[in-house]
């Protein structure tokens, strides 16, 4: 083969290889472009689908929540506190809960219960505050600024633990204790008309049971008296003291195992147990919430309770005085005695004339003879 032909063949080979390589590269580029276009179309479709589905989901949620709110508005005289908290949170975008009265400022049971419901319900903007006065009796609350201090925080819900344990120590009457507690309730309602106030009985205290005061009363008498009186009112009440003891029986548990060394306060296990009782009450106990916030409709008028509280009257003991008739002095009548001469009757003496001779024995005769002889002088 000539040299010229060899060069032509080489050039043709190179061109062929270049064309093949260019074809592969073009095909790959085209494929990548098509893939990219497909991905863009997929993303666009996804965005369209998502944009179409999102309003539907939000619409469904809004509708469901609207139905919940409507149901609550119709039945708020028999609703749970959790439902009320959601109602307030929906309308105000936040909710503030206060713990007031005979409660520790670092009450673990309260904090754990609030954390539990926050995890289960849409209550992300929920705050808590404590106004702790565990060592004061109900009369001190009335003469102090405790209510005003709490009012400054504008709570939406107030859990008011009644101070019956201290009333036991103060040694006031059952009537005074119950009236004072309702007076405090009236004072809070007057200052915070849109707040929901829930009365709560205190946690059990082993050391105070049967530690009677001079009236032969312990804190259970004061607590039970208020619970009985509250049966005729619509004041929301959690009787956690009774719930706690009842659940102890159900679980076969004893109170000393849940108390601290002094027997006055709950230990760690007791705090956890009490928190469970409180959280369960928030979810399940149906109370009258008409005293709280009204976002729509007319709020019922409120009549203070303390002035209308029926206080059992102690029947007056009527002491009947026995009036004795005055003794009239009557002058005695004297009669002269009549002399009656005595009558004497002679009784002759009885004489026994029969004489029994004494016959001396031989020994007696000798003795008598000797005696006679000794007395003779010759």
TrEMBL record:
Q: Which InterPro entries match?
A: SGNH_hydro_sf (IPR036514)
Superkingdom as given in the UniProt entry: Bacteria
Q: Which ranges does the record mark as transmembrane?
A: 6-24
Q: For this UniProt record, give its keywords in alphabetical order, as a comma-separated list.
A: Membrane, Transmembrane, Transmembrane helix
Q: Where is this region: Disordered?
A: 359-378
What protein name does the entry list?
GDSL-like lipase/acylhydrolase family protein
């Amino acid at each position: 083969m000539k040299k010229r032909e060899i060069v032509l063949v080489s050039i043709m080979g190179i061109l062929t290889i270049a064309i093949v390589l260019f074809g592969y590269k073009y095909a790959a580029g085209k494929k990548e472009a098509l893939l990219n276009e497909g991905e863009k179309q997929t993303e666009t479709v996804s965005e369209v689908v998502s944009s179409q589905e999102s309003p539907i989901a939000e619409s469904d949620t809004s509708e469901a929540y609207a139905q919940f709110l409507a149901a609550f508005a119709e039945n708020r005289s028999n609703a749970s506190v959790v439902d009320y908290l959601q109602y307030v949170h929906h309308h105000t975008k936040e909710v503030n809960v206060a713990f007031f009265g005979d409660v520790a400022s670092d009450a673990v049971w309260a904090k754990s219960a609030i954390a539990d419901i926050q995890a289960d319900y849409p209550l992300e903007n929920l705050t808590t505050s404590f106004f702790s006065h565990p060592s004061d009796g109900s009369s001190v609350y009335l003469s102090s600024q405790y209510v005003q201090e709490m009012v400054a925080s504008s709570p939406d819900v107030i859990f008011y633990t009644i101070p019956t344990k201290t009333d036991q120590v103060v040694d006031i009457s059952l009537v005074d204790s119950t009236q004072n507690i309702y007076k405090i309730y009236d004072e809070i309602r007057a200052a915070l008309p849109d707040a929901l106030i829930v009365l709560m009985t205190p946690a059990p205290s082993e050391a105070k049971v049967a530690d009677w005061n001079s009236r032969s009363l312990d804190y259970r008498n004061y607590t039970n008296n208020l619970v009985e009186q509250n049966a005729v009112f619509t004041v929301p009440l959690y009787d956690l003291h009774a719930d706690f003891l009842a659940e102890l029986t159900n679980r076969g548990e004893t109170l000393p195992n849940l108390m601290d060394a002094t027997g006055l306060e709950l230990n760690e296990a007791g705090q956890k147990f009490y928190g469970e009782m409180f959280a369960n009450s928030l979810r399940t106990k149906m109370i009258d919430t008409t005293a709280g916030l009204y976002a729509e409709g007319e709020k019922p008028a409120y009549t203070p309770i303390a002035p209308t509280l029926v206080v059992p009257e102690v029947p007056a003991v009527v002491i009947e005085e026995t009036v004795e008739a005055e003794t009239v002095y009557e002058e005695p009548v004297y009669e002269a005695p009549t002399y009656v001469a005595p009558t004497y009757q002679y009784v002759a003496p009885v004489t026994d004339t029969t004489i029994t001779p004494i016959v001396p024995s031989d020994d007696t005769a000798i003795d008598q003879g000797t005696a006679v002889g000794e007395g003779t002088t010759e």
